[in-house]
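Ops channel
N.P.: pipeline sanity check, posting one input/output pair.
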């Protein structure tokens, strides 16, 4: 599968061919658990789920984003949830990726809000989401 590898440690962005398997993602990114972030269109960033909790010395960010600790793979997502070839040119990510020295400027710790979902209706979920956001703001 065609992917774009953001190597924060080596400060490079390059096109790679990678097997579409979890173990291959773990090995390439250098992690034990992945998180999938939507970054626009049907493109996804596969990153280290525990990046902010680990001792990554390097990271990166895209414009108007907080930053990501560690490396990433950029791929596309299918409607069924599977991964497929990245469609964007590698040059796009070379231009919009800013590398971060996390030893000098660490990322803020992860933050989350908690709320009880009283019922699974759209209204109940929206109410819980708003409550979780209020909880998050109180703990920042």
């Amino acid at each position: 599968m065609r992917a774009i590898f953001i190597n924060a440690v080596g400060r490079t962005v390059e096109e790679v061919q990678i097997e579409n398997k979890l173990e291959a993602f773990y090995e390439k990114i250098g992690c034990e658990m992945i998180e999938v972030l939507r970054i626009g269109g049907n493109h996804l960033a596969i990153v280290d789920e525990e990046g902010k909790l680990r001792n990554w010395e390097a990271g990166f960010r895209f414009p108007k984003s907080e930053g990501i600790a560690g490396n990433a793979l950029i791929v596309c997502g299918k409607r069924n949830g599977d991964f497929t070839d990245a469609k964007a040119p590698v040059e796009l990510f070379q231009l919009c990726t800013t590398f971060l020295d996390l030893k000098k400027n660490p990322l803020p710790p992860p933050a989350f809000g908690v709320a009880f979902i009283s019922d699974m209706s759209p209204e109940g979920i929206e109410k819980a989401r708003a409550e979780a956001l209020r909880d998050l703001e109180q703990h920042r």
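N.P.: looks fine end to end. The chain has two domains: 2-101, 110-140.
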